[in-house]
Amino acid sequence: MAEANIAWILVASALVLLMTPGLAFFYGGLVRGKNVVSTLMYSFVSMGVVSVIWVLWGYSLAFEGGNEFIGTFDALGMQDISFESGDDGSIPPALFAIFQMMFAIITPALITGAFAERFKFSTYLIFLVLWITLVYVPIAHWVWAGDGWIFGIGAVDFAGGTVVHINAGIAAIVAAGLVGRRRNVERGVEPHNVPYVLLGAGLLWFGWFGFNAGSGLAADGLAVSAFLVTNTAAAVAGLIWVIAEYQQTGKMSGVGFATGAVAGLVAITPAAGNVGVMGAMGVGGGAGVLTYLAVRYRHLLKIDDALEVFAVHGVGGIWGALAAGIFAAGGAGLVDGEFDVLWANIRAVVATIAYSGLLTFVILKALDVVPGLGLRADEQEEDSGLDISYHGERGYVSDGAD
Q1: Is the residue at 326 inside a domain?
Q2: Tens digit of pLDDT for each residue in 193-220?
Q3: How many structural domains is the chain composed of?
Q4: Which one of 35, 131, 247, 258 is at 20 to 30 Å from 93 when CA atoms are compared?
């Protein structure tokens, strides 16, 4: 059995890594053509920077011993991490570290949709190091390490509703508010490449099976159940989204279905290990309605969250965490009259929002006042497009790329 578990989690790890290029295309298609390379690079460079951080100190601080708030430096550089399975057939600790690395990679990449088309790339590289170390790592320890305080109160986050999606969603809205609105953009821009959006959504959906079905860390019935409920929630949310869109506009857009499906995937993530198929339909239905309304009315906040990260990942993640307590199978959910899981998850949600919001604000404010850094591209760079300004290349060789 150990060999089967190892094989499955290796595959699941690769699937989760594929989600980051998928996110890059999803986001890249939504921006203007003059910023497509920059938007793609936010995600791709996370694969490089976060991988190195995770190996050097991130994994150790997140999962190696410590107290209820943070781990230790005992496994710096992955020293003394075993590559052998346990006697009980569990996967090797090194494989667990690999699997968790992929979650760490995609989380800050999610944030970038909020400040797309206007954030300085050099500052982003420094932000990656600081945010993973000071925000992501502690929350991962709280929720997933056996001695973490959120784990200890009985909160359920099977695959990252709090650690990944609420964390990124709250950081995104803080970042969007601090960096300011895009120049000459009032209510968003038309996506320059809808096929990219659909391709990215497809890769995300595909990779999400590793994200959720792999989180039980074994090739077993729980993985099968998580796979099924993941697909169900995504399908329901995508359909709900385009039905709501049709009622408002008379059209069913590809971007709308893709966004709804991603919202369903976000919402089922914390609950994938503890809800049944009918519960997943409730999770997906709620995600479709709530995130559609959040996107539709987000402009009332007067914050330019360019690619609706808070609406999809923040709102979707909060709903998913609450839904894990509402629809929990086995008589543990609110639908069966039990409140314990929901109450624990409410506390986890509030703690994640408070910590991520505050620390992200402090990190970005500090970077904004450091001479030579700052958060915002200058007007000429923004008007020319960040592809040329920061990367010296264009996504397309023809004129009229914006």
Answers
A1: yes
A2: 999 999 999 999 999 999 999 999 999 9
A3: 1
A4: 131
